[in-house]
Specification:
467 residues; 3 domains; six-stranded mixed sheet; binds flavin-adenine dinucleotide
Length: 467
């Protein structure tokens, strides 16, 4: 349905995944939307270096719900090329693979190329007459010196697309309100901090990541060299390799490891030795020369967690997505959470009948606990992926957790299920429920071990007595 047009104009800073969804959502509410993006239109780029630019994302229930909430048909179009991953495939050092399903009901998280998803969303923006996108403009400054305290935003024309005369020229615009979706190093957030007593924290994780690439196999009939419906993990305690499937039969693989270790692997010999020792089966798929090349030449990227509070200044500016909360990628929730931000915000704008100050204030107050919760969960999941999945205790607890879910249904949901497949449960409630369940599981575990110890004691006593 055509929305009732509204007279207020909104500027969205950043045409990444979350900025695009925010643009679609606010246009659907009837606002006139202008998006500003400092890069060039990615659809104009003639070459995309797959090895360096193709981070794969797992889209899960929260992300899909947020897309559906804007427009079901749009959501279907945008997600048409996802590959479901129904569980993890654990690769041990000898190359043995163990499959661990995510849920009892065949639930899946879905692999999609980030650049591809961004382009699909940009294509959707073009379908709306209420949305305009300006590329090559970088937010430099923001204040609230406009009419009625409206935000004024100052952009610099980025060099790449500037013509010689206008290079670096500052452009100023005034809007009724601004949504900052400009990523982890958000300039909007930085500007906002001058007007809001904002708590802010930033923490680098001692973890570096490097992209690798597993090409499709040679067979014309079946292109995948690994199970296509699994998220593959080579967990090695302090470091790990993962791989997510692509539609063309390839896999995007990522190495995660401490900085010291990663930087110490600085010669061909060291890289070969390290990979042959730890990831022999992966090397066979990637190719030895390709591993060396990737490890020595691909960018070594850092992982940063940021959090802040509040997220808004009156009804004039609000930040969403990584701009408000960047997290480590180990729960596959960064974008899903950013999409959920937009859905929650839109619901509040409707609830407050377009009175933005109340809507934005309520968003800040109610959303904080959920954002803090998912940042913590994401951080903790590194140990689960790189270490715990290797342990027997983890496997036993997983089975017990699944059994309880089978017995009690919705009343007992494993944490991963709540976070990834039940977007109707708030992140903060996922943590609360899982703490109670975890305690009960521990009691059960003690009971099982206690029973085991008691039986062992009885058996030993019987043997000793017989003597
Ligand atoms: P961004 O994607 O960073 O977009 C910000 C946009 O703003 C960019 O286009 C940028 O050019 C633009 N911009 C920046 N500054 C300015 C400025 N001053 N002026 C104008 N424009 C500006 N999430 C998941 O949900 N599932 C996953 O499986 C997953 N895996 C990940 C794996 C890795 C290795 C990493 C690093 C992240 C992963 N994430 C995942 C997280 C996900 O990529 C991010 O949460 C998501 O991209 C955030 O989107 P965003 O739009 O908020 O920010």
């Amino acid at each position: 349905d055509e929305p009732e047009p509204r007279k207020e104009k909104v500027a969205i800073v950043g045409a990444g995944l979350v900025g695009c969804l925010a643009a679609l959502s606010f246009a659907r509410l009837g606002y006139k939307v202008t998006l500003y993006e400092y890069r060039d239109d990615p659809r104009n780029e003639t070459t995309v270096d797959r090895n360096l630019r193709s981070i794969n994302l797992a889209v899960s229930d929260r992300g899909i719900r947020a897309l559906n909430a804007v427009d079901l048909e749009m959501s279907i179009r945008v997600l048409k090329n996802i590959l479901p991953m129904r569980g993890r495939m654990i690769h041990d050092v000898d190359g043995h693979q163990t499959s661990m399903k995510y849920g009892l009901h065949n639930e899946a998280i879905n692999s999609i190329d980030r650049a591809y998803l961004n382009i699909e969303l940009l294509n959707e923006l073009d379908r709306h007459k209420n949305i305009k996108v300006n590329y090559g403009l970088k937010l430099m400054k923001m204040d609230f010196s406009g009419k009625n305290g409206n935000p004024r935003i100052y952009f610099e024309k980025t060099k790449k697309v500037a013509n010689t005369l206008e290079e670096n020229a500052i452009r100023t615009f005034e809007y009724n309100f601004v949504i900052g979706a400009d990523g982890a190093y958000s300039a909007t957030r930085f500007q906002l901090q001058k007007f809001v007593r904002m708590d802010f924290s930033q923490e680098y994780m001692d973890c570096c990541y490097i992209e690798l690439y597993i090409p499709p196999g040679a067979s014309k009939k079946y292109k995948f060299q690994l199970h296509p419906n699994r998220l593959h993990i080579w967990p090695r305690n302090k470091f790990m390799l993962i791989a997510l499937p692509n539609f063309d039969g390839s896999f995007t693989s990522t190495f995660f490891g401490p900085w010291d270790l990663t930087e110490s692997l600085d010669t061909r010999e060291k890289v070969i030795d390290f990979f042959q020792t730890n990831f022999k089966d992966a090397v066979d798929l990637i190719g030895l020369e390709q591993v060396v090349e990737a490890f020595l030449t691909h960018p070594k990227c850092s992982l940063v967690c940021t959090s802040c509070f509040p997220y808004n200044y009156k009804g004039k500016c609000i930040i969403v997505g990584d701009a408000a909360h960047s997290m480590v990628p180990f729960y596959g929730q960064g974008m899903n959470c950013g999409f959920e931000d937009v859905r929650v915000l839109v619901e509040l704008v409707k609830k407050h009948e377009y009175e933005l100050e109340s809507a934005f204030n309520e968003y800040s107050v109610t959303r904080q606990q959920d954002l803090d919760a998912i940042i913590t969960l994401a951080r903790n999941n590194y140990t689960e992926m790189s270490h715990n999945v290797n342990t027997t205790r983890y496997a036993v607890r997983k089975k017990m957790d699944a059994a309880m879910h089978l017995i009690f249904g919705d009343k007992w949901l494993p944490l991963y299920t709540m976070v990834s497949f039940r977007g109707d449960i708030r992140y903060s409630d996922c943590i609360k429920r899982s703490k109670v369940q975890g305690w009960l599981l521990s009691q059960l575990e003690l009971g099982v071990y206690g029973l085991g110890a008691w039986l062992a004691f009885k058996a030993i006593r019987a043997v000793v007595r017989d003597r």
